[in-house]
């Protein structure tokens, strides 16, 4: 027996003075309502109603039960209403998962959202491993690479171009490679993957095929920003993601190299569970990030720029 359901039917029947009207109010048949009340009486071991063909009245035990449970049911109804209204309130906790590699690029947008909605408690956790939203109790994830698996909804934001770069100081001192093979003659950085601990190969578009090359690293790190800092300092050539390199390229701090071999097979994604299950603050953040970042040219080189660089 569903005791909460049975007590709800009992309270409505006592309030309305009629079991049939209580059944209609609860959206069930009169037979189901009568059965629920009888089961409740059997469970409690007392009669709750005096029944006649015309009238339904409470017994003394029924009156005591009504006085006890009616405030509790009102509190329960209020709590349910509060939970429903909270779904439409842009306030409360917002848990976001993102890799350190994207932190510097995406953090300004997160801060802008926090300034627009000060009642949202933004909690960003930087983790280079893929985050299972349910397991980690996160509302939204941001990731670079392929679309996240595992049943989450993923929206592509911007492409990731892997751009071979060097600083003007490096080129002045060591020269620039003219081919992929020339990289073996240069000082290069390496990126060590967080999930495997292995150094990632560099990838290139050669003809119509993506090929991978193991590049000997004179400086290796597992932090994308640290790798970019080493390239900016003129210590080595690096293959950097466009989200961290483009601003430096446009402002002349980095020079893109071998652009005809640049790849663009991955993207930055925002992923989340079904929108209909999300509070308004989560849906608002998702819409904000999509509106702010989707195909935003601040994060990648345009075809016009690439054609100009190729010349």
TrEMBL record:
<dbReference type="InterPro" id="IPR058163">
    <property type="entry name" value="LysR-type_TF_proteobact-type"/>
</dbReference>
<dbReference type="InterPro" id="IPR000847">
    <property type="entry name" value="LysR_HTH_N"/>
</dbReference>
<keyword id="KW-0238">DNA-binding</keyword>
<dbReference type="InterPro" id="IPR036390">
    <property type="entry name" value="WH_DNA-bd_sf"/>
</dbReference>
<dbReference type="Pfam" id="PF03466">
    <property type="entry name" value="LysR_substrate"/>
</dbReference>
<keyword id="KW-0805">Transcription regulation</keyword>
<dbReference type="GO" id="GO:0003677">
    <property type="term" value="F:DNA binding"/>
</dbReference>
<dbReference type="GO" id="GO:0003700">
    <property type="term" value="F:DNA-binding transcription factor activity"/>
</dbReference>
<dbReference type="Pfam" id="PF00126">
    <property type="entry name" value="HTH_1"/>
</dbReference>
<protein>
    <submittedName>
        <fullName>LysR family transcriptional regulator</fullName>
    </submittedName>
</protein>
<keyword id="KW-0804">Transcription</keyword>
<feature type="domain" description="HTH lysR-type">
    <location>
        <begin position="1"/>
        <end position="59"/>
    </location>
</feature>
<dbReference type="InterPro" id="IPR036388">
    <property type="entry name" value="WH-like_DNA-bd_sf"/>
</dbReference>
<dbReference type="InterPro" id="IPR005119">
    <property type="entry name" value="LysR_subst-bd"/>
</dbReference>
<comment type="similarity">
    <text>Belongs to the LysR transcriptional regulatory family.</text>
</comment>
């Amino acid at each position: 027996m569903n005791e909460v359901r049975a007590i709800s039917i009992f309270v409505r029947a006592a309030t309305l003075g009629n079991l049939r009207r209580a059944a209609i109010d609860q959206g069930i048949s009169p037979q189901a309502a009568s059965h629920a009340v009888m089961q409740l009486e059997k469970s409690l071991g007392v009669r709750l109603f005096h029944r006649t063909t015309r009238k339904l009245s409470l017994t003394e035990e029924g009156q005591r039960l009504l006085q006890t449970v009616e405030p509790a049911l009102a509190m329960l109804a209020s709590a349910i209403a509060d939970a429903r209204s909270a779904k439409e309130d842009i306030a409360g906790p917002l848990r976001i998962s993102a890799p350190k590699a994207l932190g510097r690029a995406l953090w300004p947008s997160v801060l802008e959202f926090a300034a627009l909605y000060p009642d949202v408690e933004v909690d960003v956790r930087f983790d280079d491993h893929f985050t299972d939203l349910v397991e980690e109790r996160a509302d939204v994830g941001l990731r670079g690479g392929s679309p996240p698996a595992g049943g989450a909804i993923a929206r592509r934001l911007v492409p990731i171009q892997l751009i071979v770069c060097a600083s003007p100081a490096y080129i002045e001192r060591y020269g620039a490679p003219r081919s992929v093979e020339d990289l073996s003659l240069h000082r290069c950085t390496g990126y060590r993957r967080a999930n495997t601990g292995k150094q990632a190969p560099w990838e290139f578009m050669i003809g119509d095929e993506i090929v991978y090359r193991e590049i000997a690293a004179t400086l290796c790190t597992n932090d994308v920003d640290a790798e970019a800092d080493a390239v900016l300092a003129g210590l080595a050539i690096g293959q950097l993601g466009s989200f961290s390199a483009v601003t430096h390229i446009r402002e002349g701090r980095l020079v893109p190299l071998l652009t005809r071999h640049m790849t663009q097979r991955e993207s930055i994604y925002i992923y989340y569970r079904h929108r209909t299950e999300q509070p308004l603050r989560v849906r608002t953040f998702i819409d904000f990030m999509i509106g702010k970042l989707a195909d935003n040219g601040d994060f990648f080189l345009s075809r016009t720029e690439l054609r100009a660089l190729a010349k």
